[in-house]
Design brief:
By secondary structure, this protein is α+β, with helices and mostly antiparallel strands. It contains 5 helices and 6 strands, in the order αααβαββαβββ. It has 2 domains: 41 residues, Arc Repressor Mutant, subunit A (Orthogonal Bundle), CATH 1.10.10; 84 residues, Alpha-Beta Plaits (2-Layer Sandwich), CATH 3.30.70.920. The strands form 2 sheets. Strands 2-3-1-4 form a 4-stranded antiparallel sheet. α2 packs across α3. The longest helix has 13 residues.
């Protein structure tokens, strides 16, 4: 991948709402060049989706997110791919990652409440033959996501000293 495309990706990752005219100005190239590069990145599925990072705690508090560590037995001939696909097809699953370390997959699940997530784990995830064990961690609060800090914070944390 060429340097221009990498620069475009960096700028769009920062703010996906930047238009091609602004990107061209920032990069010092023609707008047509930027449009062509973005089209190629989309066609090659390098750019998969444009999305907003939302601080859901400011909008609604009802959703529950959990990270589930899953140990699995890989399938003959397909390894982890088949079981990962079976898991990510559930609508409650937001992300699935193959991991190194003590467990194989990290599954991010979203539900209406704790019972909803627990029900998913016990009724859908655990019964899968290749699943050996699960460990569920509920997210209590998000401080930062995708490089975005959610909470307002003071820059100066020094204690006031008075004479």
């Amino acid at each position: 991948m060429n340097a221009l495309k990498l620069q475009i990706l960096d700028l769009l990752k920062e703010d996906a709402r930047r238009d091609t005219e602004l990107l061209a100005t920032l990069l010092g190239v023609e707008e047509a060049t930027v449009k062509q590069a973005i089209t190629e990145l989309e066609d090659d599925h390098v750019i998969v989706k444009y999305a907003a990072v939302v601080n859901w705690s400011k909008v609604e508090d009802d959703k529950v997110t959990a990270l589930i560590e899953v140990q699995i037995t890989p399938e003959r001939g397909r390894g982890f791919e088949g079981i990962a696909e079976r898991i990510y097809l559930f609508p409650q699953v937001k992300s699935v990652y193959l991991m190194s370390g003590a467990y194989d997959l990290l599954v991010e699940v979203e539900g209406k409440n704790l019972k909803d997530v627990a029900s998913f784990v016990s009724d859908k995830l655990s019964p899968i033959d290749q699943v050996l064990s699960t460990k569920t961690h509920f997210i209590l609060k998000k401080y930062k996501q995708d490089g975005i800090i959610f909470e307002d914070h003071e820059d100066d944390h020094r204690l006031i000293v008075s004479p």
